[in-house]
Design brief:
By secondary structure, the chain is of the alpha/beta class. The chain folds into 2 domains: 373 residues, no CATH class; 124 residues, Transcription Regulator spoIIAA (2-Layer Sandwich). Helix content is 62%, strand content 7%. The chain is built from 22 helices and 9 strands. Strands 5-6-7-8-9 form a 5-stranded mixed beta sheet, sandwiched between helices. A two-stranded antiparallel sheet has the order 1-4. Strands 2-3 form a two-stranded antiparallel ribbon. Helix 20 links the parallel strand 7 and strand 8. The protein starts with a helix and ends with a helix.
Length: 564
């Protein structure tokens, strides 16, 4: 495996400038450093776990996945799923869920489900992302305004009520730093600078908070350093531990009660639903990111290999303290624009973050929590895709609008696991419903070129499209409703592209009904592989009642012989 990875990197970098990939990796590393911390905090865990995720998952997934340019790490899409897990099961439960999700992703890739994930309807994905954006933005209000309330819990409406009720406790110092950071985040891109805006915003926010606190002893804001504490062996301190990610079985990490969570069948069974949600969201995000990256880079990803790579990354990351990861569109796009063309960029991005942990952890502790909240507010705004949301409501068919609103409201008001389950179900229903309309049958009327020679005792039905469980009943509905004088029915199946078991059962039912009325059946121009299916099912064993023909002329001649 490692020799294959080595050869892959060598081949990828032989046709491009290694320097471009290194510079791209450094660029996206600068972007990913504060984002990884912010997303870990939003998920309810200390910031170093987001950094560990970017390092381990970023490197492992790049070397084992199906996209050459995807950059993986913690993403905003997971926040609404991960936070409830942390609140109920602690860090240990979260990492076990991530490990289980990795296994599920590998199984999805081995089952070749990558192509299916890629065709999830647009309203479903927009409903998810817009809903996630609203939830993330709501969760940042507490730190942005410095509200004096305990950690938010309960359903969305309960959280919203708590926030509104607590607005009188607004802290002007936190609001000032958060507002300053947010203004820079909004207006910096208009300067068209190559320096990432959020890096400048966090830097200015941190300097402003430090400067104001130096000038006035009454000025104080919460920072990463005074919000988070660590104790690892003999090493303890505030902020982020300046050490390498260390191996630890997830079940040895603390649950919500602070004690090792352990491992049991009941725990796995409880966390499985969350793991499935993480896996589905991760697959959607990763493959969507890969499609976007293909369009920007000119590369071509393998969706099934990408699922396997994401699964491997999510199985290894929890062993080193990493939370669930997926490919990130914003980071991948920044990497491609900076010159990325191979997994080297993602590897460099992970190594950059690793070096930053070892050398800059003391400085990172000065970042204000209000500035991190402002950064996440921008992430939420970008993720909400408000323009696409409104545009879909304005121009989309009614089914798409209902699907969009359903996924959005379920994501915001209820649980993400419910939203994903219902969303994927709606995607399947939309696919089936629209596929049904692609299949039809029609009775060939007197305009047919053969009708001058066609006896009244023969009826020809032209069937078009795939015959599967959703379309069979519609396509076959009228075939047995024939006039008493009909003695032979010809099914012209030239344009039938598939037959499943439901269609085979329907064919058997049609044959039984026709036989009961002493009516013969001729199946015309059905593809050989589908004829073989019917033969294996025994549909063609009733001699004198079912015939197979290659052309419509042959079918008509056969039908004439059957009525004489």
């Amino acid at each position: 495996m490692f020799s294959a990875i080595k050869n892959s990197l060598k081949n990828d970098c032989s046709a491009v400038c290694m320097q471009s990939n290194i510079l791209a990796g450094l660029t996206v590393g600068v972007i990913a450093l504060p984002l990884s911390m912010a997303l870990a905090i939003a998920s309810g865990v200390p910031p170093q776990h987001g950094l560990y995720t970017a390092i381990i998952a970023g490197i492992v997934t790049a070397l084992s996945g199906g996209s050459k340019v995807n950059i993986s790490g913690p993403t905003a899409a997971f926040v609404v799923v991960l936070l409830p897990i942390v609140q109920q099961y602690g860090l240990g439960g979260l990492l076990i869920s991530g490990f289980l999700a990795g296994i599920i992703l590998v199984l999805m890739g081995l089952a070749r489900l990558g192509q299916l994930i890629e065709i999830v309807p647009y309203p479903v994905t927009v409903g998810f992302t817009s809903g996630i954006g609203v939830v993330i933005a709501t969760l940042q209000i507490k730190d942005f305004f410095g509200l004096n309330i305990p950690p938010l819990s309960g359903h969305y409406l309960e959280k919203l009520y708590t926030l509104l009720y607590s607005l009188p406790t607004l802290n002007w110092q936190e609001t000032l730093i958060g507002g300053l950071t947010l203004v820079i985040l909004i207006y910096w891109p208009k300067l068209r600078s190559r320096i990432p805006g959020h890096l400048i915003a966090l830097l200015i926010g941190s300097i402003a908070a430090w400067l104001f606190s130096t000038l006035s002893s009454d000025f104080s804001v919460a920072t990463i350093g005074n919000r988070f504490h660590y104790s690892i062996g003999n090493l303890s301190g505030n902020g982020i531990p300046p050490i390498l990610p260390t191996f630890e079985w997830p079940w040895n990490l603390p649950g919500v009660d602070g004690k090792p969570i352990g491992i049991s069948f009941n725990l796995i069974n409880t966390l499985l639903a969350s793991a499935i949600t993480i896996a589905i969201l991760g697959s959607l995000e990763s493959l969507l990111c890969a499609v976007v990256a293909d369009g920007m880079s000119g590369k071509k990803h393998n969706p099934n290999d990408e699922l396997i790579g994401q699964g491997i990354g999510n199985m290894i990351a929890p062993l080193f303290g990493g939370i669930p990861a997926t490919a990130a569109i914003a980071r991948t796009a920044a990497s491609v624009r900076a010159g990325s063309s191979s997994p080297v960029a993602s590897v460099v991005h992970g190594l950059f973050i690793l070096i930053a942990i070892l050398s800059l952890s003391s400085l990172l502790a000065y970042i204000p929590m209000a500035s991190m909240a402002a950064l996440l507010l921008m992430v939420a705004w970008n993720m909400s895709e408000i323009k696409h949301f409104i545009r879909t409501i304005k121009i989309a068919p009614r089914d798409d609008i209902l699907t969009l609103l359903t996924c959005f409201l379920l994501t915001v008001l209820f649980d993400m696991a419910i939203a994903v389950g219902v969303g994927m179900g709606l995607a399947a229903i939309l696919f089936i419903r629209r596929s049904i309309h692609l299949t039809e049958n029609k009775l060939i009327e007197t305009t047919h070129e053969h009708d001058s020679e066609l006896p009244n005792e023969i009826a020809i039905y032209d069937i078009n499209g795939p015959l599967f469980f959703g379309s069979t009943q519609k396509a076959m509905r009228n075939i047995t409703r024939i006039t008493p004088n009909i003695r032979v029915v010809i099914l012209d199946m030239t344009e039938v592209t598939m037959i499943d078991m439901s269609a085979i059962i329907a064919m058997e039912s049609i044959l039984s009904d026709l036989s009961a009325n002493n009516v013969g059946l001729v199946i015309n121009n059905l593809q050989p592989r589908m004829v073989l299916k019917l033969k294996r099912a025994g549909v063609q064993t009733r001699q004198g009642k079912v015939h197979i023909s290659q052309t419509l002329d042959d079918a008509i001649e056969t039908a004439k012989k059957m009525i004489h």
